[in-house]
Amino acid sequence: MAQTAQPAQTVATQKAKKEVSKAKADAKKEAAAAKAAAKKETVAAKKAADKAAASGAKLKKDGTPDKRYTNAKEVAAETSKKTASKAAAKKEEAVKEVKASTPGLKKDGTPDKRYTASKEKAEAAVKETKTRATQVKKEATSTVTPKDYKPTVDRSLQGPNGEQILTGPRGGKYYINKNGNKTYVKREG
C-alpha cells in the first residue's frame, strides 16, 4: 500500500511544484513590469528635473521641481505683456476714433497742414483756445484784485509808530513799515 500512496503524493507534489513555478514566473513578470514602470518614472522625473534646472527652478531632493517657488520674473513678465497689449489696443482705438472724427491729422494728433480744410479748422481751433485762455486769465485776475483797486484807509486805527492802517482786497488790515514792506495787523477777537 505504501507504493500506491507514494504516487498520489508525487502527483500532488508535482502539482504544487508546477503551481510554485508558475507563481514564480508570474512574480518575475510582475517584478519586471514594475521595474520597467519605475524606470519610466525615473526617466520622466530626470527629464522634468533637467527641464526645471534649465529654466532655473528650484528642485527637491529627488530632482523634481519644487512648486512652492514660482518664478516671479516670468509671472511679472506675463502680466506686464498682457497689460501692455491692452494699453496698446486702447491707444489704437482712441487714435482710430480721433482720426475718424477729424480727418487730416498726423499720427501724433497734430493737424496736417497739407490739407487746407484741416488748416482752417486748426487755425480756428487755435484762435478759439487763445481767446478762451485770455478770457479765463481776465476772470482770474478780476476775482483776485481789480486793476482800479485802491486800499481803503482805516482812520480809526494806527500802526505802532502812527502809520496808516490800510485794508487789503480780501479784508486784511496792514500798514507799510519803515522798510516799505506790508506788515499785517493781527485780528482782535
UniProtKB/TrEMBL annotation:
Chain segments carrying region Disordered: 1-174
Domain of life of the source: Bacteria
Compositional bias of kind Basic and acidic residues: 16-50, 59-81, 89-140
Ranges of compositional bias, category Low complexity: 1-14
Name of the protein this chain belongs to: Colicin import membrane protein
Native source organism of the sequence: Pedobacter steynii
